[in-house]
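HOLO CASE FILE
Compound: magnesium ion
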Amino acid sequence: MQSADPIIELRGVGHQFDDLVVFENFNLKVFSGDSLVLVGPSGSGKSLLLKFMTGLVAPDQGEVFYRGQLLSTLSKKDQQSFLAEVGMLFQQNALFDSMKVYDNLDFVLGEAKPDWKSSQREAEIVKFLTAVGLDHVPQLFPGELSGGMQKRLGIARALVLQPKLVFYDDPTAGLDPITSRQIIQMILDLKKQLNATIVTVTHDMMRAYQLAGEIMVCFPRDFIKTGGKEETLHHSNAKVQQFIHGDVKGPLEAL
Ligand code: ADP
Ligand code: MG
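Model generated. Tokens follow.
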């Protein structure tokens, strides 16, 4: 069930880089408990959209609201509570390469909870490393992990502060189909455990369907909410049909 007020709302958002218009009068509402899935060709603006929603980039035009408040004018205190509520898995994981697995989480917790004892942090870190299946390798460095394990660590780090709103930018990029499926299952399990709202970018329609949320197919300056799996499969838009089936011929040829 959706509550009346969105957690995140974008109103009239516009953005361009030099002559390249990426967003034009774009509107979106994300409600508590939603699982919004962004798919679409590379360069359509999916990562940028996540950056608007996390406040990392302010759009040229329009407004981004977080629980009804303008993100750009939050007080310092509200900004802190926003940051405490938000978790993000970046496309390139953004791990601390010079820190061991354990320390990647310890650093984040230490920054956010300066008054916690190390034993308190340890209990939390072990809980999250166990949840992502990395409790047996706390002393390895990120460079010593497989691609799938690095993603798991990125997910644990994004979640260790128990955010209510989590953004995943292509969590299965470069992973084999079985690992990809496990990662998405883990994201879904953790969403349930933390009672979170998630927005996930993926390039893989199988993973989009597995996420079982509302799908938005993103084309340049044309973001189309297509609904769940069945509605998306039967969507009437020709570009959507071409994209989800990976057809070479169709209206997207000009892209
Ligand atoms: P996606 O994640 O869908 O592949 P992005 O959101 O990364 O796409 O980028 C959308 C468009 O904006 C692309 O054409 C990209 O080249 C352009 N773009 C993104 N960031 C910048 C930037 N900092 N400077 C110039 N162009 C950018
Ligand atoms: Mg991207």
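CASE NOTES: The beta strands are 8-17, 20-30, 35-39, 61-66, 69-70, 86-89, 165-169, 197-201, 214-219, 222-227. The chain has a mean pLDDT of 92.
CLOSED: yes
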